[in-house]
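Handout, page 2. Input:
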Amino acid sequence: MPDKSKFLEDVGMKNLPFPMRVLSKSNPDGQPTIANISISARIMREFEAQWIDRFIQVLHKQGKKIGPESLRANILDYQTRLGASAVRVDFDYPFFIEKTTPVSQEKCMVRYLCTYSAKSSTVGGTSINFKIEVPVITTYPVSVSDKPGGLFGQLSIVAIEIASEKDVFPEDLVEIVDRYAIAPVYSYLTEEDQKYIIERVHSEEITSVDLVGEIKKELAHNKEISWYSVSCTNHGMLHSYSTAIGIEKSPWIPST
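Output:
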């Protein structure tokens, strides 16, 4: 066993802004964005003064495009060059999708917050996770469906995190969430669009519990995804707190 006294736990750096191109279904070359990069590493004490410079060198050498395949190779490079027994790198970035409004068919850009997390250790091997947060509208839990105007909505932020050996596009994950919500969230709506969505909020009942359940079924039957978690944070308009629900893949959830 290695002498643990020779290692520093969780030596790291946070929020380094860096221009990158990220996986995009609509752009084969990747969507340009600015990622905030954070890293933590377990390194030998003799490396303490040098590790940050070596990390920056590796980052510039590896190029400016990230995805599951490149990260799987890059994280091993980070671990080797830093002389680390364990290393984790997180890339937080905004991703934009062009959406069409439901009635007027106007185009608008909607921002989604994404994270690639790459981990590698001499004991646990390598893992790459992707996370995306998708804002949608769901039914407020104390709504009353049998009275006119008794249904009303709330803002829900759905967070999907997956592990996959192959590319899973963020656009496809957003499409799954939007399909089962009352309505997506747009950056622009005409009066006709607003009226349409308000009418849906007052006529359809889709709770965050229903939404998470349907998303789980989709992910469980996707053979490309080896692990997933789905969580939903709900911001109701009557309380100062938020509610949450979540689930992740476990042995009793079917994978086929």
